[in-house]
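Researcher: For the annotation table, I need structure tokens for Ada DNA repair metal-binding domain-containing protein. Please keep the output clean. Sequence:
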Amino acid sequence: MLSYFKKLVNWVKKNINDILLTAGIVLVALVSFGTGQLFSSLKDSRPIIIQEPAGPSASIQQSIPNIKENVNRENVNKAEQGMFVGSINSNKYHWSDCPSAKKIAPQNQIWFNSEKEARAAGYVRCANFDQYAPINYSPE
């Protein structure tokens, strides 16, 4: 019996670092669980209310003229050309900021003012169409 006790003591001495590490992890887990339980019982029952801001702040209003001045001619031309762009080499139409649309060479671009116009020309939506659509976009 004494030899078993000596073996146990020797094993504990040999593995003391691992035993302390395991005990520390268990202790941290128990304290974390207890803290979580404590704070869940103290939960604030007031609802969170999200409101729209009253209007643009003064700094935003002051920067709007600067933004308008910095619009480059290329973007103005795209706005004048149409809402959707397709390629003369495919049957897909895209939003102008779609990565596939950006790959279309300028000489191969064909612009449409509406989806109806694009479909009438035999074009169909690209695979990423919904991903790049504006938030409140509703098809015709």
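Researcher: And a one-line annotation?
Model: The longest helix spans residues 16-41.
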